[in-house]
Amino acid sequence: MDCGKEGLLSEFNELVELKAKVEDLSRVRERLIELGAQYLGTFRQVDTYFEVPEGRLKLRETSGKRLAELVYYEREDITGPKRSRVYLIRLGKPKVLKDVLCKVLKRRVVVDKVREIYLYQGTQIHLDRVERLGTFVEFERKTLDVEKDRDSLKELMVELALDLGNLISLSYSDLLESLG
Description:
alpha+beta, 5 helices, 8-stranded antiparallel β-barrel, single chain, globular, Hypothetical Protein Pfu-838710-001
């Protein structure tokens, strides 16, 4: 049986995304407000990553939300706008699933962050404060035309005065693992 057709998949998205280290989230926040970006909320998210043969698998628990998200994704590890394929299942009782995953799979790392989410011209913009790593801006945009959407993210970087030299190719989990 092909899980992609018969499984419990609740959502699949193809994205273009980008991540940059920033020193001052307030400057980016002020610019987003000037541009008229829609504020969607601030959330504490704890992502528990598990070892898998390919891609990345995490269980995301968000404070104040009843449902957790099991997320598997494959993403280019390149600096600049990168293409991602994201499979997501929303589910209740995350503790039960986490206990099972911890018994079956090796836990890699836990990413604990506070994320402010904005929406601007079809792009979700995350202002992240990540424990042990610092502050970052992340863009996520659903895509049908990867090259066009890569260009949109590059234009948004200019709008927000983000430094190209601060682009990050890796995930927060990879960055935390590199700290040891």
